[in-house]
Amino acid sequence: MPTVKFENGKAAIIEDAFACVEDDQPIPTEGAVCVSLERFKTDKEAILARNGDIGVRLVPDDDALELTDVIDRLSLVEVTFPKYTDGRAFSQAQLLRRRLQFKGEVRAIGQVLRDQMDQMARCGIDGFVFEPTSGEAPDVVENAIADFAYAYQRTSGAQTPIFARRHVASKNI
Amino acid sequence: MYRYDEFDEQMVRDRVAQFRGQVERRLSGELDEDHFKPLRLQNGVYLQMHAYMLRIAIPYGQLSSKQMRTLADVGEKYDKGYGHFTTRQNIQFNWIALKDIPTVLEELANVEMHAIQTSGNCIRNVTTDQFAGATAEEIEDPRPWCEIIRQWSTFHPEFAHLPRKFKIAVTAAETDRAAIRVHDIGLHMKHNAAGEVGFEIIVGGGLGRTPIVGTTVKDWVAKDDILDWLEAIMRVYNLHGRRDNKYKARIKILVTELTPEVFTKQVDAEFEAQRDEEKVRLPQEEVDRISDYFKAPAFETLPATSAAYEEAKANDEGFAKWTETNLSAHKVDGYTSVTVSLKPLNVAPGDATSAQMRVLADIAKAYSFDDLRVTHIQNIVLPHIKLDELYNVYLALDDAGLGADNVDLASDLICCPGLDYCNLANARSIPVAMEIQNMFSKYDRDLGKLHINISGCINACGHHHVGNIGILGVDKKGEEFYQITFGGRADEKARIGDIQGPGLRQEEVTPALERVAQKYLEIRQNSDEKFISTLERLGAEPFKEALYADS
After folding, report:
1. Residue (of B523, B527, B526, B528) closest to B543 by Cα position
2. Is residue B402 within 8 Å of B322, Cβ to Cβ?
3. I want to staple B76 with a disulfide (CB 3.0 to 4.6 A). Which of B2, B296, B354, B381 is the partner?
4. Which residues of chain B have a Cβ shorter than 8 Å from any chain A Cβ?
5. What is the complex's ipTM, to 2 decimals?
6. pLDDT, tens digit (0-9, with 9 covering 90-100), for B361-416
7. How large is the greatest C-alpha to C-alpha distance in chain B, in angstroms?
8. Which candidate from A84, A99, A149 shows the least CB-CB separation from B275?
9. Separation of alpha carbons B94 and B47, rounded Å
């Protein structure tokens, strides 16, 4: 499945550099890896000590705030949509971006559908792993994110909320 | 009332285009029904027994005459010439073709209307007191905050896929006409000790399978903080609300399972943890801008009484009777708020024809500062009518079949569409409602204020739990039975009614309720003691006896 990165208004397919390490597999000595939060907590020292970028995979039951003290060491956090109707990853992404000020990639995995991508992007998700039902994957992401010109809320996305646009002269923004 | 600016306009236009694309993908087969369902549900489109149903948002129940006329047109062009006003202060059309829906939404967008978040597991249309801006009881007009919450909740990306639907109601009066204690969040605008206006936050009320009266989690929070508190509550719910069982997914279950104390602690912790950059920080200019739209219209200085009104009452008995039930005190002398009953006999409660909608629009334009409200009791309010002009209003209403004089009486009941329309229903509710109305219409004035609520299934769209008398249709081995509850109320003394015993057959319901009514007339202290007061004074026993006297 392609991984699409959305950056500066453009979407592009990227090479997934992170080896996804299952909980029962050994962690390779070299290269970027992505592990579950559980595994990360168990082997935290070893993972932090090794060479290579670190990614952590969250499932909806995970508390994203458990990453607070290591957030600057991470390059990737994957958030999971087991079903697109399970919206917990939206809150996890917001916590990562806004509470923990995570600057790396927040990547959506699981059931990642075109019609939720705008919401995902606005919660700070900038990586999308999905198989398009039609068209090219980067076009799907760009079109989905272009559905709405404005947003009412101040969220993780770069958008200025409508209430602030209305009062550009205000010092309060 | 609020008017869209370029941004609001663009949001709705973008939504129409997006939904048109989704419908096209569905009709072409690119989307199957499973994947289309959550998309249409976020836009008020349900698949019902006979057709798609479209639910249109009426934010906090307020409409202009132009909007009401558009609803009339939609009813005529795309439905069967009528619409159904709901307990959510919205309207729904039951016979719309899917292919027409994007065009309907475009026509709605032309008058600043939409169907955004009228269904689905998201924050729904915010509701409020139908007399907002007209009643002297409120400490201030709650509508600016309803509009602020509408904008904040519209396409909030974090809360688009909650465990379950989420309803917020606001009131600024002590008399609660918005049923805030049986909402997921109820906001009660009130003063703190310093005399500032803020919000009491009540969380976890609701009806459905597990009816619960909400708990106060914050006695008072400042206006500046209200959206941050809402974000905190919503995030705790989104992350921790149950998703394993849709019947246990509402916030009321989370609050109950955690206990209100623990839930409140989690919300407090989330609020405290918000960094400054996470705060919504709505500029005061924006609060002022929105508030300006709700300034009082240009009321005239009038005497408190009107000779024309008194004379008409003396000469027209029907009018005089109507004024006894359908008027509410207005904050300005010489004005009154009129409730137009959508509960005449032999009409599905809450239904209005397109012709009636146009009459209501005309009256609102000519006599009520272009302002109409939908109530959660499924009636329409003309909030600002001059007493001098009341008789003309009455005549126009009566001429259109809108002169029913039964507001808050037994025949002014709440009723869901039931098995006649709804996929979820176990039993019919409209025929039962009509029968009860016919029986009570003979003497409902003697009975005084009495709220009867009817639901055709346990999902409780007819709010049966909070009816003084509640009726719940259930299916037992293919036969419809009706369970009766007593003692419910949705107001500031909100209470869930108690089930009295075994369900009744449809033909037994009306005679049984008639016996209950007769018992009440027999044992009440005087004609000023309402049914609910007699019930609360004496307990349910005498009424229960009457209910089952025949079995």
Report:
1. B523
2. no
3. B354
4. 5, 7-8, 10-11, 14-15, 17-18, 22, 30-31, 35, 38-39, 121, 151-152, 154-162, 235, 238-239, 243, 273-275, 277-278, 280-286, 289
5. 0.96
6. 999 999 999 999 999 999 999 999 999 999 999 999 999 999 999 999 999 999 99
7. 67
8. A99
9. 9
